[in-house]
From TrEMBL:
Pfam family, one: PfkB
E.C. code: 2.7.1.73
Lineage, top ranks: Bacteria, Pseudomonadati, Pseudomonadota, Gammaproteobacteria, Alteromonadales
GO BP annotations listed: GMP salvage; IMP salvage; purine ribonucleoside salvage
Keyword Thylakoid assigned: no
Protein name, entry field: Guanosine-inosine kinase
Catalytic activity of the protein: guanosine + ATP = GMP + ADP + H(+); inosine + ATP = IMP + ADP + H(+)
Free-text function comment from the UniProt entry: Catalyzes the phosphorylation of guanosine and inosine to GMP and IMP, respectively.
Keyword field: ATP-binding, Kinase, Magnesium, Nucleotide-binding, Purine salvage, Transferase
Pathway: Purine metabolism; IMP biosynthesis via salvage pathway; IMP from inosine: step 1/1; Purine metabolism; GMP biosynthesis via salvage pathway
Domain Carbohydrate kinase PfkB: 131-292
Residue sites binding GMP per the record: 93-97, 198
Cofactor: Mg(2+)
C-alpha cells in the first residue's frame, strides 16, 4: 500500500522530500509520528498436535477456549515436552500479535500495555515473548509483576480443529493506575479484545481496560474491539451489544462471532447489523474472504468500477470506492460495503489459521494510522476535504488486509516475520489498481 510516512522504498509517498510547489510545511518542521495503543493479556502460544484422547485426559473441551489451573498447566506442558509433541512456541495474544504486525507493516511505533514478569530468565516464557516481538513495539509501559505471564496451549487434532487451554498466570493483574491518560488521549487508536473482560474476581485487567476505554471515549480516540471467540460472546450477547454500541468505534470479528453478537449467520448481514452500533466493521469469513462495512456521507460516495455483487444486500459493493467516515461526521450517512475473496484464492497449504484475523486487523489499523499521519503533515491536502476515518477506500483496505492475512496463513508463526515485498510478480496490477 502506498501509505505516507518514513519509508526506505522509493514507491512510497515521499513526505520528507516534497516538491517546492507542494511543500505545505516548513523544512525545519520536525515530523510528528503518531502511534496506536493496544491492551493485552501477555501470553506465549504453545502449539502441539494431539488426539481426542489427549484432550479427554486433561479434561479439555474440544474446539473451545478454556482456562486451566496451574497444576493442569504443569502436567500438560511436561507431557508435551517429554513426548516431544511441542511443534512451536511463539509470543502470542491477539492484541500482542496485532501490535507486532502493525509495527512490521508500518515500520513505526505501537505501544503495548499489559504485565511482564519482573525477573526474566533466558528461555523463560517472558523471555520468549520479548525476543519474538518487534523492536518497534514500545514495551516501556508494561507493568512489572512478581510471577509468570500467561501461556496459551493451541492443541490441534487430526481434523485441524483447534482447542485452546489458557493458563493465566498473572496476565490479568494490569491495574487501572498503570493506564496513562496522556498515552491514550494522544494515540491514533486504542485496540482491545473481548478476552480482557473474561477475568476472575481477584483480577484487575477488566477495570484497567474500562479505564483506558473511558479515556479514549472522552478524547474521541477510536476504540477498536476484536471479539476473539464466539463462546465468550454467546454467554451474554445483550451485554456485548450494549458495550459495543456505547464504547466501540471499530469492530473486528469472524462469521461465528458475528452470529453470536448479531444473530445473523450471513457475514454480510452481520456486518450490516453491527453498523447500527459502530462506524467500521471487519468480518473475516474463512474461505469466503473478508467483508468490510462502514459509512460515507452521501455527497462523498464513489461508485465502484467492479461488477456489482449479489448477496443478502443486492449490489452491496456499489460504493466500495468510498473512504470510511464516522457516522457522527456524516450529514446524510450511507452504509457502504466491500468484499474481497482470499488473496490468490488462498494458499495451497494452510500452515496455521491462528493469527490470520490479527494480521487483517493490523492492515486496517495501518490504513487508519496513515490517515492520521497524513492529516498531521499535509492538512491542506484534498484528501482531507472530508473528515474520513480511513486513508484508502474500503475496496483497497479489504485487498490489503487479505494480502496480509495470506502471509500469516502460509507460515507457522501467528505473527508476521517480515514486511510485504516491495514488488511481487504474482500480485496482478488489477488486484490493487482498481
Amino acid at each position: 500500500m502506498k501509505f505516507p510516512g518514513r519509508r526506505r522504498h522509493k514507491h512510497y509517498f515521499p513526505v520528507e522530500a516534497k516538491d517546492p510547489l507542494s511543500n505545505q510545511f516548513q523544512q525545519h518542521t520536525k515530523l510528528q509520528n503518531n502511534y496506536i495503543v493496544g491492551i493485552d493479556q501477555i501470553v506465549v502460544d504453545i502449539e502441539a498436535k494431539v488426539d481426542n484422547n489427549f484432550l479427554a485426559q486433561f479434561g479439555l473441551k474440544r474446539a473451545m477456549s478454556q482456562v486451566i489451573d496451574d497444576e493442569t498447566t504443569h502436567a500438560l506442558y511436561e507431557h508435551l515436552k517429554n513426548n516431544k509433541m511441542v511443534d512451536y512456541e511463539f509470543a502470542g495474544g491477539t492484541i500482542g500479535n496485532t501490535m507486532h504486525n502493525y509495527s512490521v507493516l508500518a515500520d513505526d511505533r505501537s505501544v503495548l500495555l499489559g504485565v511482564m514478569s519482573e525477573n526474566i530468565k533466558i528461555g523463560s516464557y517472558a523471555y520468549r515473548f520479548l525476543s519474538n516481538t518487534s523492536s518497534r513495539v514500545d514495551l516501556e509501559y508494561l507493568q512489572p509483576v512478581d510471577g509468570p505471564i500467561g501461556r496459551c496451549f493451541t492443541l490441534i487434532d487430526g481434523s485441524g480443529e483447534r482447542t485452546f487451554a489458557i493458563s493465566p498466570g498473572l496476565m490479568n493483574r494490569l491495574r487501572p493506575e498503570s493506564i496513562s491518560e496522556q498515552l491514550i488521549t494522544e494515540s491514533s487508536a486504542l485496540v482491545i479484545s473481548a478476552y480482557l473482560m473474561r477475568t476472575e474476581a481477584c483480577d484487575t485487567m477488566t477495570q484497567a481496560t474500562l479505564k483506558a476505554v473511558e479515556y479514549a471515549n472522552a478524547a474521541n480516540v477510536p476504540v477498536v474491539l476484536t471479539l476473539g471467540t464466539k463462546f465468550l460472546i454467546e454467554q451474554d450477547p445483550t451485554w456485548w451489544q450494549e458495550f459495543v454500541k456505547n464504547h466501540v468505534d471499530i469492530l473486528a470479528m469472524n462469521e461465528e462471532e458475528g452470529l453470536a453478537i448479531t444473530g445473523f449467520e450471513d457475514p454480510l448481514l452481520a456486518t450490516e447489523k453491527a453498523l447500527d452500533w459502530v462506524d467500521l466493521v471487519i468480518c473475516t469469513a474463512g474461505e469466503k474472504g473478508m467483508f468490510l462495512g462502514g459509512y460515507i456521507d452521501d455527497k462523498w460516495k464513489r461508485d465502484t468500477t467492479h461488477m456489482l455483487m449479489p448477496g443478502a444486500i443486492p449490489d452491496f459493493n456499489r460504493y466500495e470506492y468510498s473512504r470510511g467516515m464516522r457516522f457522527q461526521d456524516c450529514e446524510k450517512p450511507v452504509k457502504i460495503y466491500s468484499h474481497t475473496a482470499p488473496y490468490m484464492g488462498g494458499p495451497d497449504s494452510i500452515k496455521n489459521t491462528n493469527g490470520a484475523g490479527d494480521a487483517a486487523l493490523a492492515a486496517v489499523l495501518h490504513d487508519l494510522s496513515a490517515n492520521v499521519y497524513h492529516h498531521i503533515h499535509v492538512p491542506n491536502s484534498s484528501k482531507h476535504k472530508l473528515n474520513a476515518l480511513t486513508y484508502s477506500s474500503l475496496s483497497q483496505i479489504s485487498k490489503y488486509a487479505n494480502r496480509v492475512s495470506y502471509e500469516v496463513l502460509v507460515q507457522h508463526s501467528p505473527r508476521l516475520t517480515k514486511g510485504l515485498p516491495e514488488r511481487e510478480d504474482s500480485l496482478q496490477q488489477a488486484y490493487w489498481d482498481q
